[in-house]
């Protein structure tokens, strides 16, 4: 079982988008039972708030629901609870390291570090561009699943069976 925690500043835009998009993609690949996927915030500002309406709308355009999700904050316990802690941008990684401490450079990474074009994912709360954020997160989630598969950590059904 691979345990993944997506992290952004408030846990209302990017990290819940990544959480529910990865769940959707894993189900499409037939490996959803091999993953535990969640999301959290580095900041306490949005704790308890629902997912931003822009994220809800963008996910719904692709038939993905994030109903019932409310922002939660990253805690030190999460470092042991998850195999991968994936931030959306470098500032998230700095905040994550401050909260969690670090001893494994492969455990705390940016989502797009798995892609062919590593970069930060812009915060749509500031940019208003949920389309671009969705495209970046889709790229990152697919690259992350490909990496897990290439390393034998997940086994999608329907491939070669």
UniProtKB/TrEMBL annotation:
Its EC number is 3.1.3.48. The keyword Signal does not apply. Residues 2-147 form the Phosphotyrosine protein phosphatase I domain. Gene3D superfamilies: 3.40.50.2300. The active site is at residues 8, 14, 123. It comes from the Bacteria. It catalyses: O-phospho-L-tyrosyl-[protein] + H2O = L-tyrosyl-[protein] + phosphate. GO terms for molecular function: protein tyrosine phosphatase activity. InterPro entries: LMW_PTPase, Ptyr_pPase, Ptyr_pPase_sf, Tyr_phospatase_low_mol_wt. The keyword Kinase does not apply. Keywords: Hydrolase, Protein phosphatase. Belongs to the low molecular weight phosphotyrosine protein phosphatase family. This is protein-tyrosine-phosphatase. It comes from Faecalispora sporosphaeroides. The lineage of its organism: Bacteria, Bacillati, Bacillota, Clostridia, Eubacteriales.
